[in-house]
Write a structure and sequence with these properties.
The structure is a single chain. The chain is mainly β and about 400 residues long. The chain has 1 helix and 30 strands. The protein has an 8-stranded mixed beta sheet with strand order 19-18-17-16-20-21-22-23, with no helix packed on it. Strands 1-30-29-28 form a 4-stranded antiparallel beta sheet, with no helix packed on it. The protein has a 4-stranded antiparallel beta sheet with strand order 2-3-4-5, with no helix packed on it. Strand 20 (about 230-235) and strand 21 (about 240-245) form a beta hairpin. The longest helix is centred in the C-terminal third of the chain and has 4 residues, at about 350-355. About 45% of the residues are buried.
C-alpha cells in the first residue's frame, strides 16, 4: 500500500460511550482528496491482477493510485452526472466495463473499457427511465449473474443483461410508477428463498419462475425518503426477515421488525438504530472484523443536499451489530470527521471548502472489498469531500 495519509479522527477507540464498541484500527488513504464524484467502482481495469478504482472521469491504478482520465462527465450544480459505477463485462471481451446512471440526464448506460491506457472510454445508452439516484447490482432473476437495479425515483425498473457482446442485449423489467420513491432495495422478505424487490412503499414478491413477469405487489409499509439499499434480513433471529433503512435527507437509521399474526398477516414495527446520523444514502453488509458475522456498514453522505437536516454535521462512517440478548445495536465508528463549522448560506456551500481536508463520507456508493489482498475487508468511500480508502488494519502484525 502507498504511504498512508492520516487524519484526526481516523483511528478511534470508543469503548466508554453507551452503545459503542471498540472498532478495529483503520487508516485513511486519500486516493484523491479533491475528487467530488459520489460513486466509485473497484475492479481490475487493466488485467494485471490488481484491484483498481474508477470514480467519475478517472481510473486510479493500483497500487500507486496513479490517476488517468478515462472520459468526460458533465456537472449540474454541485452534482456530477455519474451516480453509480457498477463493474460488469458488458460486451463480453473479458475487460471489465461499468454500468452507471445519472439523475439530471435521466439515463442508465454502460461505459466501455477500451483495454488501452490513454484511450477514452465510451458511454453507451441503455435506457432513459427517469431521474436515477444511485444503482446497485443484485441477482434479481436468480441466474447467478448480477442485474442492474437503479433507484429511478419516478418508477420501479431493473435491467437484465441477456446477452453480452459488441451490441449487448438488455431486458427491461418495468414495474410502473405506483411503488416508486426515494430508495430501493432487495432481500428475501417472506423466507421463500427468492430475492424480492423493495421500495419505500412496499415490496414486489420474487416469482417462483425467475423469468416470469408477474411480481406480486405488497404495499405493507411507508418508509419515507430512504437510502439505497433498503435491506431485508432476519435481524433478531426469530426466523422472520426484518428491514434496515436510513433516511436519505434527514436524521435517522432504523430497522423495522416483521411481526406475523396468527392469521399469517405481516405487520412491521419500526425501531431506532441511530438517530444521530444524517443523510444516510448507502447501506451494505460486510464482515469487517473477521468474526464470521456481517455488520451493517453505513455513514453520512456529505452534502446530500447542501441545505437539509444535518448537512453541516461532521461526516461519519460506522458499523452496527445487533445484540440479540439486549435487543440493541452496538455501534463502532471507523471514521469521525469534524463539522463544517463556518459553512456559508446554502447556495454558496462547497464540501471541498467547508469541511476539513480528509473528510471521509459515503457518497452514493461504498464498496467493501479486500483491495490490498491482506485477508481483511477494506472500504472505498467516494463523496463530494474526496475519494478515500479506509484500510482495515485487523490483519496487520
Amino acid at each position: 500500500m502507498p504511504r498512508p495519509i492520516l487524519y484526526a479522527g481516523a483511528l478511534l477507540l470508543l469503548t466508554t460511550l453507551p452503545g459503542v464498541t471498540a472498532s478495529p484500527k483503520w487508516v485513511v488513504h486519500a486516493i484523491n482528496g479533491k475528487s467530488e464524484f459520489e460513486a466509485a467502482g473497484v475492479f481490475d481495469v487493466d488485467g494485471d491482477g490488481k484491484l483498481d478504482i474508477v470514480s467519475g472521469d478517472t481510473w486510479y491504478q493500483s497500487p500507486s493510485w496513479t490517476a488517468s482520465k478515462v472520459r468526460e462527465v458533465t456537472k449540474q450544480g454541485t452534482y456530477f452526472n455519474d451516480f453509480a459505477t457498477l463493474p460488469m463485462d458488458v460486451n463480453g471481451d473479458s475487460k471489465i466495463d461499468f454500468v452507471t446512471c445519472a439523475y439530471f440526464p435521466k439515463n442508465v448506460g454502460w461505459v466501455e473499457n477500451p483495454g488501452e491506457k490513454g484511450k477514452e472510454w465510451t458511454y453507451h445508452e441503455i435506457d432513459l427511465p427517469g431521474t436515477s439516484e444511485a444503482a446497485v447490482l443484485v441477482d434479481l432473476n436468480r441466474d447467478g449473474k448480477p442485474d442492474v437495479l437503479p433507484n429511478v425515483t419516478g418508477r420501479v425498473v431493473w435491467y437484465e443483461l441477456q446477452e453480452a457482446g459488441p451490441t449487448p442485449k438488455w431486458k427491461k423489467h418495468d414495474f410502473g410508477t405506483e411503488a416508486a420513491g426515494h430508495g430501493v432495495g432487495s432481500g428475501d422478505v417472506n423466507g421463500d428463498g427468492r430475492i424480492d424487490l423493495l421500495t419505500p412503499k412496499g415490496w414486489f414478491e420474487g416469482p417462483e419462475d425467475p423469468k416470469a413477469e408477474t411480481w406480486v405487489w405488497h404495499p405493507e409499509w411507508n418508509l419515507g425518503a430512504t437510502g439505497i439499499q433498503i435491506l431485508a434480513r432476519d435481524i433478531d433471529g426469530d426466523g422472520l426477515a426484518d428491514l434496515v433503512h436510513g433516511m436519505g435527507h434527514n436524521y435517522g437509521l432504523f430497522w423495522s421488525k416483521q411481526i406475523k399474526g396468527s392469521d399469517g398477516k405481516r405487520s412491521w414495527e419500526r425501531k431506532d438504530i441511530d438517530l444521530s446520523v444524517a443523510s444516510v444514502h448507502t447501506l451494505l453488509w460486510a464482515d469487517l472484523d473477521g468474526d464470521g458475522h456481517e455488520e451493517l456498514v453505513t455513514g453520512k453522505r456529505v452534502y446530500a443536499h447542501e441545505v437539509e437536516a444535518g448537512a453541516t454535521d461532521g461526516s461519519v462512517v460506522s458499523t452496527y451489530a445487533f445484540d440479540k440478548k439486549s435487543g440493541k445495536w452496538n455501534r463502532s465508528i471507523l471514521f469521525q470527521g469534524q463539522p463544517a463549522a463556518n459553512a456559508p448560506a446554502g447556495p454558496q456551500r462547497n464540501a471541498q471548502k467547508d469541511f476539513p481536508p480528509g473528510t471521509v463520507g459515503t457518497g452514493l456508493q461504498m464498496t467493501a472489498i479486500d483491495i490490498d489482498v491482506d485477508g481483511d475487508i477494506d472500504l472505498v468511500c467516494p463523496g463530494k469531500s474526496g475519494l478515500y480508502l479506509l484500510e482495515n488494519m485487523s490483519k496487520s502484525k
